[in-house]
Input
Amino acid sequence: MKINLEHLSVRPVTKIEEPRYRELMQQHHYLGDLAKMSHTLGYVASYGETWAALLSFSAAAWKCSARDRWIGWRYRHQFSRLNFIANNSRFLILPDWHYPNLGSKVLSLSQRRISADWQTHFGKSLLLLETFVDPSRFHGTVYRAANWHCVGQSQG
Output
């Protein structure tokens, strides 16, 4: 099947869809489902009515020395500014949906809308998104293709 990425959309998961979202994440993501703690938003990428990928964004990691050095934060400012950052805590392309450029398109679409969604749900503005990539499993290529800056990882 050939797909037109222009027909892909990303939106928050509804309350009614949460059980299905959690089940798919548990079944197919190598880390399983993420316990919903603090600020967390789940997203679904759809192609028509069919789910193609799932994402979650959560409150920023408390400590990340590579991020803090890159931003230039001093320790005393770090904790008061973490609320400006969201962590892409899960990203799952569902089985049978591994098409060229789909991952970077999903990340780009979510990137465009998350700030407004975060403001609506949590009353906070976002300035930065972060994620962590396990280099023993992944290279982070899809994030680079979506124009995410890679910090604390070799660029080669």
